[in-house]
Amino acid sequence: MSFLPYAVAAWLFGVGIYGVATSRNLIHLVVCLTVVQSGTYILLLAIGYVGAGKAPIFADIPLNSKVVDPVVQTLTLTDVVVEATVVALLLALAMQAEKRFGTLDPDELGVMRS
Amino acid sequence: MIEAFQIVALVLVAASGTAVVLVRDPLRQAVVVSFYGSLLAGLFFAFQAPDVALSQIVIGSVGVPLMLLMAIAKVRKRELERERDE
Amino acid sequence: MSRRARLWLLAPALAGTMALVVWGFTGLADFGHFQGAYGNLLAKVAVPERKATDIVVSTTFDYRGFDTLGEEMILFTAVLGLVVLLRELRGEQEEEEEAHDDQEGHAGREHRTSDALRIFGFGMVGPTVVLGVYIVTHGTLTPGGGFQGGVVLATALLVVYLAGRYAAMRKVSPLPLLEAGEATGAMAYGLIGLGGLIIAGMYMKNFIDPGTKGSLLSGGFIPLLNIAVGLEVAGAFSLAFQEFLDQTILLRGDGGSE
Questions:
Q1: Number of cross-chain residue pairs from A and C with Cβ atoms under 8 Å apart
Q2: May I ask the CATH class of domain A4-101?
Q3: Is residue B2 helix, strand or coil?
Q4: Cβ–Cβ below 8 Å for A91 and B50
Q5: Chains meeting C at 3+ CB pairs closer than 8 A?
Q6: Which ipTM score applies to this complex?
Q7: Tens digits of per-residue pLDDT, C85-114?
Q8: Whole-angstrom Cα distance, residue A26 to residue A103?
Q9: Where are the domains of chain A?
Q10: Deepest of A7, A55, B7, C234, by most Cβ within 10 A of its Cβ?
């Protein structure tokens, strides 16, 4: 079973890309992109996990305890927050596209220009 | 090596992530994605990453779905307006 | 390209990519057996060196502080781009008058939220702000920090909107103030890093005495950076929420620029 975390990360990555490629709505597409990205979070945290390790916070555990890797958590933590603002930017782009072309369907963009 | 709680969380995340992609209506998707965000936060807890889980809870269950809802509302409003104009 | 053709192109491309991904994953250490030299070293030396008990936070802001500067700039630029895009959407010429008559026009909203919701909602604002500030300032000790606390602070603004009305939210958070908050936070982070260059001879070097373990002010300049990032993230998210709300509530129709 120990391959499961990597399998889930790969699955989310693949299913997200499938969603992006087949999406018929720009807002739906942006959300699919967040699914792709969450696959990378799971991969990073799964790599850094140490069996029976504790969270790397030494407020109430002894200094020599076995802990999980703090570096991957740092990467993921900042990315979760930054990703949300990037999603906001993409949504604004989608709204701008909807205003210009009158549709959110990526296939019709550029065709229906009035 | 892998704990039962982690297995359950991973399976739930994989299933709901698939649901997020397969739900095609953006409004319903906004609801599903907030659910997905919360499950993801649970998984981060299971991976001993409370810092990441904390930011995922706020972002995944409030921040992103809310911005989605507002974007959808704006687009709907303009669609209605266009219909009225015609 | 037709939809069919795109699907046919997608199938082999996705299959190939996934094969590469899976092949790459087989080279990873088994789940739970990771031995990262850098992470293990940090886990040993971070607490004695920096006195901050949350190693994730001391890695974010101190050992990898320079990377966080980059992340912060992505956040700053993304929100900047969002504001530019949405304001362009708004149509400048009628911005002012519309904002004005909507203050009366949306007075109706006040009647639509029930008293119970309003009282409960406004009661929640204080605790939300306290929680946000707590998470920001206790980042060095327990899970939390500027990124998480900043988002919590921004949601306090949303509670004002949900409980009361839009005009009330605009009154407690004027846009220039949010913009200033975001920019100040971003600048403060860079300047604190510069302090390291001037005092300790290296950019982003921790130049303040780390204090004692467990103290609220332990970790040298980490609490300062936490506050700077908290300010920036709170400003950025409030700004994003408010720009989106402006789009959905304030505007009727197309913004009138076409």
A1: 160
A2: mainly alpha
A3: coil
A4: no
A5: A, B
A6: 0.90
A7: 988 776 643 444 445 444 444 444 444 678
A8: 9
A9: 4-101
A10: C234
